[in-house]
Amino acid sequence: MQPTKHNKPTHRRFLVVFAALLLVSCTLIWGIAHDTRQFDLLKEAHVPLRLALSGMVLLAALAATVLFLKRSFTHPVHDLVEYVRQQRNGNDAAPPKSLRERNDDIGLLTNEIQGLLDTLRKQNERLLEQTLNDPLTGLGNRRLLEQRLEIALPLSRRRMAPLSALMVDVDHFKDYNDHYGHPAGDECLVEIANVLRDTFRRETDIVVRLGGEEFLVVLLDVGLDEAMRLAEAMRSMLQAVGIPHEKSSAAPVVTVSIGVATALPGTPIDVESLIACADSALYQCKAKGRNCSVSSIVDKHMLESMQLSTT
């Protein structure tokens, strides 16, 4: 935002113009009312005519004053109010150039409002980013997951495309925290988040941290085989990083278990059911000794059985 060159305030200019008009009007009225050399033509005029001419001069001065007020105050203020109203309605357009380039109080006020609105907009964007992202890892959180799946799930059903979810759980993470300390645990989670980013790079891939040591990945248009290949790639990549974990019974380094659930094309699944299916596959990983990937197919029969088990 460029600073406004603040010259003579508008109200001072108005006072100067109004005083000039008043002085000219009073001079003309005095000249009409008295027999002066400058008004020889009115010497023989009757009093009513002189009064009429005086009234016309007053009206002309009043009209000039009103026009000046409209041009200098009323119209710019109306444009400024309209700009603020548009901003309130979500229009991010800049204020009119005629307002921004004014060298008076209205121009200064316009630029100040624009600066405040820009600052407020940036702060709102930062707040929104904070509410949608996990502060530790920078991945999305549960709110971002629900927001994106609200659009992705119906779209996937209409396109009759498969949908896969990967529930990722860090093996023996509590033991890791107890042995190495919580700061080291946070660094471990950040490293796992980086491996997830390196593995799932598509713009449509949804990678979030659900909380603690649990992560969830949702893959649109990805079938079971491809989802398992990506899960194993992520698991192997993390194991190759080689973060030491002396207290793990699965491996001497940090590892993860991944439950993979793939919904067949057209399956009417919601967020909660998707997470529940991936979580069920994850429990099978833990039963097998962890540090592995287990897959499952989600169809209507499986969803119906899950609903019956919860009732």
Description:
This is diguanylate cyclase. Keywords: Membrane, Transmembrane, Transmembrane helix. Its EC number is 2.7.7.65. The protein has about 300 residues and is of the alpha+beta class. Helix content is about 60%, strand content about 10%. The protein folds into 2 domains: about 10-130, no CATH class; about 140-310, Reverse transcriptase/Diguanylate cyclase domain (Alpha-Beta Plaits). It has helices at about 10-35, 45-90, 95-100, 105-130, 140-160, 175-180, 180-200, 225-240, 270-285, 300-310, and strands at about 165-170, 205-210, 215-220, 255-265, 295-300. A 5-stranded mixed sheet has the order 2-3-1-4-5, with helices on both faces. A hairpin with a 2-residue loop joins β2 and β3.
Furnish the topology, listing elements before pairings.
Layout: H1 10-33, H2 47-88, H3 97-100, H4 105-132, H5 142-158, E1 163-170, H6 173-180, H7 182-199, E2 206-211, E3 214-220, H8 224-241, E4 256-263, H9 271-287, E5 293-298, H10 300-310
Parallel strand pairs: 4-5
Antiparallel strand pairs: 1-3, 1-4, 2-3
Helix pairs in contact: 1-2, 2-4, 6-7, 7-8
Give the strand tally.
Answer: 5
**How does CATH name the architecture of the largest domain?**
2-Layer Sandwich
Beta content comes to: 5-15%
The percent range for helix content is 55-70%
Structural class: alpha+beta
Query: What shape does the CA trace take?
Result: elongated
Give the end-to-end Cα distance, rounded to a whole number of Å. Answer: 61 Å
The radius of gyration is 37 Å
In round numbers, the mean pLDDT is 80
CATH-defined topology of the largest domain: Alpha-Beta Plaits
Q: For the record, what CATH class of the largest domain applies?
A: Alpha Beta
User: Count the helices. How many?
Assistant: 10
**Main sheet properties:** 5 strands, mixed
Order of helices and strands: HHHHHEHHEEHEHEH
What do we call the CATH homologous superfamily of the largest domain?
Answer: Reverse transcriptase/Diguanylate cyclase domain
Oligomer: single chain
Whole-number count of domains: 2
Low-confidence region ranges? 1-7, 36-42
